[in-house]
Amino acid sequence: MASNPIDYRYGDASSAPADMVVPVTKADAALPNGPCRCLLVGEAGTANIRDASGTVREDVPLQQGYNPIVCLEVRTGGSASDIWALY
Questions:
Q1: The pTM is what?
Q2: What confidence score (pLDDT) does residue 1 get?
Q3: pLDDT string in tens for the chain (87-residue length)
Q4: CA 32 to chain centre
Q5: How wide is the angle at C-alpha 47 spanned by C-alphas 43 and 49, nearest 5°?
Q6: CA-closest candidate to residue 49, choices 14, 78, 82, 23
Q7: What is the largest CA-CA distance in the chain?
Q8: How far is CA 47 from CA 14, 17, 34, 67, 69, in A?
Q9: In whole angstroms, what is the distance from residue 86 CA to residue 84 CA?
Q10: DSSP code at position 36
Q11: What is the distance between the alpha carbons of residues 45 and 41, in angstroms, rounded to a whole number?
């Protein structure tokens, strides 16, 4: 399994608050600000993501609120909406 890309930028970020919140546009491309620390979701549903290991996961269930998932991409498709990347 690949190292957590967040560790490269912040050291151990597991207990630190996010310092940037950016709206996500679903696209089959890397998030513009790099790997995010968490996804904040306004409307629960599913999402297609590329996780920290580089694996594409389809139909990942996301709850409304905070989803502590390191993501490289939030890809097109899925029913979750109003998604924000926390850095």
A1: 0.84
A2: 46
A3: 455 556 555 566 666 788 899 999 999 999 999 999 999 999 999 999 999 999 999 999 999 999 999 999 999 999 999 999 999
A4: 12
A5: 140
A6: 78
A7: 33
A8: 23, 24, 18, 11, 12
A9: 6
A10: B
A11: 9
CA atoms within 13 A on the CB side of 7: 5
CA torsion sign, 34 to 31 to 64 to 5?
negative
Q: Which structure tokens are listed for 25?
A: 């546009």
Domain limits of the chain?
5-86
> What letter represents residue 36's amino acid?
C
6 forms beta bridges with none
Q: Tokens representing 81?
A: 């909406």
